[in-house]
Design goal:
Helix 5 runs parallel beside helix 9. The protein has 2 domains: 109 residues, no CATH class; 315 residues, Beta-lactamase (3-Layer(aba) Sandwich), CATH 3.40.710. A hairpin with a 4-residue loop joins strand 1 and strand 2. By secondary structure, the chain is α+β, with helices and mostly antiparallel strands. It contains 13 helices and 15 strands.
């Protein structure tokens, strides 16, 4: 071989080796995400929701590299360990707390950090049946959605309230009215509610700059709770779920998710740029926790001032390794509880005759974030830009990954809850078509589009 050819071959081999090494390093950086996603979600679905592992693996985990993980469910120790190539992750379930992905510490240490949770309350009566004529018209829609998948996706649960009464309810096989189901990003709207409760009690000023120590020596010191809840903090963030993004690293690698998010640098002046960020809600939840003298005081406040009076029993707002509930993503309550939450906002922050949220909090929540082009309020999505063209503009919603939805329709006095597995782009539920059919059924039942 000629010297020039040998030199060319060496360059090609060196480039090939560099590419292989780079690929391995990148794949290695994805490992906590791949195994962490599988372990955390399988553990929650098995130990919190009570689903069968095979069902979760064949549906929820059947995509990308996640489907190649090997998962071991240890029912005695209530852990799930997921392996892929040279990597593994373990998630642990604790009574009352739900599941936490172990990062940097073993299960026995985390178990030692639990403390008695405050008792549940029964101050709010169960949801009653609504108008029977409307229920009869909605029954074929519920059957088509859940049993026949006529609107696409794989719905687990469907509940519709009219004037606070149940007019439609249906569940996938294996799911019942008592099954806690994952919120994904609907948890952000619950984080909004926790802020609203604390504002009611004059514990917070959402327009005051946050006193986060790490921010006091740079321009981040101007950021407010309002900026964070409207997704206009200006902090750098990458919400792409398909790669080694900030949101994936936060949820699957970090011990303290809020601390990770608040460490990001400022890219835009607060209040001048809209960008959806799960990190923002975890900064908020971490900040709320820090306003209390202890975790006992914090969790007691959440249960006694919010969950209990709203009628939501046995919530699992799953914490990260630091102990902060993951305000962006990890809440488990029943479909009826999600409906109760929607009704709380439909009723201007009242439940059981008691004011739960601050006065005018719902109006604040649904006010347009200035740079969102009518799409967003404060940890709630809006329909001002007609994302759903056949739904009214005053509709607002809690929206979660893979098709979790609470639609709140004030004029029609409706709350519509859909939960399940609806991944983009091929199996996403036709929410606009579903809402259109629900509204048509209401109009036929009441003789008018507005059924108030």
């Amino acid at each position: 071989m000629k010297p020039k050819a040998k030199k060319t071959l060496r360059i090609v081999l060196a480039l090939l080796a560099a590419a292989i090494l780079g690929g391995c390093l990148y794949l290695n950086s994805l490992m906590p995400i791949i195994t962490g996603y599988a372990a955390k979600n399988l553990a929650s679905d098995v130990f919190v929701s009570g689903r069968e592992p095979s069902d979760v693996e064949s549906l929820d985990l059947n995509f990308s590299f996640i489907k190649f993980t090997r998962n071991k469910v240890d029912r005695e120790n209530r852990t799930v360990t997921s392996r892929f190539l040279w990597s593994k992750s373990t998630a642990l379930c604790r009574d009352g707390y739900g599941v936490t992905l172990l990062r940097g510490r073993d299960a026995s240490k985390l178990r030692e950090e639990t403390f008695p949770l405050p008792p549940e309350t029964d101050s709010v009566p169960p949801l009653a049946a609504g108008d029977s004529a409307l229920a009869a018209r909605l029954e074929p829609i519920a059957k088509a959605l859940v049993d026949e998948r006529a609107y696409n996706g794989t719905p687990f649960a469907f509940v519709v309230l009219h004037k606070g009464g149940i007019v439609a309810e249906r569940y996938r096989s294996g799911i019942t009215a008592d099954t806690p189901l994952l919120s994904w990003s609907m948890a952000k709207s619950f984080t909004n509610a926790l802020v609203g409760v604390m504002v009611r009690d004059s514990l917070l000023d959402i327009y005051a700059p946050l006193d986060i120590p790490e921010w006091q020596n740079d321009s981040r010191k101007a950021i407010t709770l309002n900026d964070l809840m409207q997704m206009q903090s200006g902090l750098a963030w990458n919400e792409d779920y398909g790669n080694r993004s900030d949101v994936n690293l936060m949820l699957h690698r970090e011990q303290d998710m809020g601390l990770f998010a608040q460490s990001k640098e400022l890219m835009h002046e607060p209040g001048t740029h809209w960008y959806y960020s799960s990190g923002s809600s975890n900064i908020v939840m971490r900040y709320l926790r820090g306003r209390f003298p202890s975790d006992t005081a914090f969790l007691t406040y959440l249960r006694e001032q919010f969950f209990g009076p709203t009628g939501i029993r046995n919530p699992r707002f799953e914490p990260d390794m630091s102990g902060t509930p993951v305000g962006s993503s990890y809440l488990y309550v029943t479909a009826r509880d999600y409906a109760r939450f929607g009704q709380l906002y439909l009723d201007d922050g009242y439940a059981g005759g008691k004011r739960i949220l601050a006065e005018n909090w719902v109006a604040y929540t649904t006010d347009i974030a200035s740079c969102s082009e009518g799409r967003y309020g404060a940890f709630f999505w809006l329909n001002r830009s007609k994302t759903y063209p056949d739904a009214p503009e005053d509709m607002f919603e809690c929206r979660g990954h893979d098709g979790q939805e609470i639609f709140i329709l004030p004029t029609e006095q409706l709350v519509v809850v859909i939960l399940g597995y609806s991944p983009k782009p091929d199996r996403v539920i036709d929410f606009n078509g579903l809402l259109k059919d629900i509204l048509t059924a209401c109009a036929e039942s009441y003789g008018t589009q507005g059924i108030s």
